[in-house]
Specification:
By secondary structure, this protein is mainly α. The chain has one domain. It contains five helices and no strands.
């Protein structure tokens, strides 16, 4: 721990209020960076918040992205390496639907479900995760 605070990427030890903010930050980042900027909505399953390994990977990618873009550390090489890793990671994610093999209507529905899921995530899934963290911390 740095200065007595747990690292932002280790969600297992975050206090519930910090965890809630971390979820909000991740949802915004996934929408802005993964879906909109990198156009990976066809690679990201709409149920991504329910896949703990995928969430952990997105958190790690978010932290790395932050190191590069927000802290001013890195440079062109770091940006390219991060982009390569994002593409490699997206190949490991659970498959939603294949836009090449599925009818256009199915693909459209998947994309809308993904957008709707991320909009409602903070109302449903995140509070459940925060409550689980509260219970976990209270049993220590």
């Amino acid at each position: 721990m740095l200065g007595g605070l747990p690292p932002r990427w280790n969600w297992d030890v975050l206090e519930p209020d910090v965890l809630l903010e971390a979820w909000k930050d991740l949802v915004r980042w996934v929408n802005d960076v993964v879906i909109d900027r990198n156009e990976l909505e066809d690679a990201l399953p709409w149920c991504w918040p329910h896949h703990r390994a995928l969430v952990a990977e997105l958190v790690a990618l978010r932290e790395w992205h932050s190191e590069i873009y927000e802290s001013g550390q890195g440079g062109p090489r770091a940006v390219l390496e991060w982009g390569d890793e994002l593409l490699r990671a997206s190949a490991r994610w659970p498959r939603p639907c294949d836009p090449q093999a599925e009818p256009p209507e199915t693909v459209r529905k998947h994309r809308e479900m993904l957008r709707q899921k991320t909009r409602t995530l903070l109302r449903h899934h995140v509070p459940a995760e925060v409550e689980a963290a509260r219970k976990r911390l209270n049993t220590r």
